[in-house]
Amino acid sequence: MSVIENMDIKSKQIAIIASFAVIYAIMRILPSFPVIGAPGASFALADILVPIYAIIFGPYIAAATIFLGTFLGIVFGKPMIFLGWDFLPATMGALFIGLIVHGKKVFALGLFIIGIVIFNLLPYTETLIPINGQISLPYNWLHIIAALALISPLTSMSMNWIEENSKKTIMGLFIIAMIGTMFQHIVGGIVFVTTLGIYLQSINPDAFPGIWKTIFFVYPIERLAIALISAILATPILRSIKPIWSDSS
Fold first, then answer.
1. Which domain holds residue 98?
2. HSE-up of residue 151 (Cα within 13 Å, Cβ side)
3. Tens of pLDDT along 67-113?
4. pTM to 2 decimals?
5. Domains contained in the chain, number
6. Helices 153-164 & 141-151, crossing angle to 10 degrees?
């Protein structure tokens, strides 16, 4: 009998959190997309691990792993951007996706709605983005679509595709990851404004309309890329651990 088999459940959970937090921390050092409005800062490649951790480990272990991994990443050399609140978007994203996986869609939807409302109530945010002199579109248009997808049959269908381990698994993973990364994005927007805009005042208030307009055009591509890469990576992982994952879900 192996050492792992001899461990109790709590010890296994601690081992999982510690081991995968190190992987997450290493991935946090690797940059992906630049943070618009924060020169020299970038998002981490570790964002692609958030849906994978949440689907495999569930909301609480995944959130704890990412929380620890974020601060390990700082120790490993990843600079803090948001006054130590850097952990919040990905940690909440993992919790959010984990809740969906465990069938708690109403709770997840409540978190999403609260996030959108808080974002739009904060100073320096933009509810509508002017496209030209005549047309303005909601900044949160894709977040709203993600929230609607969450309460639609599409979410249940996606989970069925994941559990069936069929050719549609990657599509199910992409949909769940896309919904999750949009929630993570809205939390990130709240942290961005609260720390850099309100508390530190390191961004000129007059610059915010231009920042949000730029982000408006960039974030759909950025979030689609994160969800797609997550789904591609997660598919073979879930297939390899399917018997274990099925028993625990």
1. 3-248
2. 13
3. 999 999 999 988 899 999 999 999 999 999 999 999 999 999 999 99
4. 0.90
5. 1
6. 70
